[in-house]
Amino acid sequence: MLPDVPSPEQREFHFAVRTNAEQAEIVRLLEETLEVAGALEAEIDALRKSILKKAFFGQLVPQGPEGESASALLERIKAEKAKKWKTSHA
After folding, report:
1. Where in the chain are the domains?
2. Higher model confidence: residue 52 or residue 60?
């Protein structure tokens, strides 16, 4: 196996090396950010489950004498989408 000999271009390449303290701070910030991201993912998952549960039990929209049935709501949504599609493709 040949040794890894840098080319002349590679020998001239300069880059900043962070101090140990700076590297430690970068790692700390990354770990903190990943922890927040993980907590947000868990919260999003819980919200999705909650929304699905409410949808399953019909608790997402108010139900009453003036409320429309699910089939009427779906028909209205379908008609609105068709109308939007026609106007955007005309």
Report:
1. 1-59, 62-90
2. 52
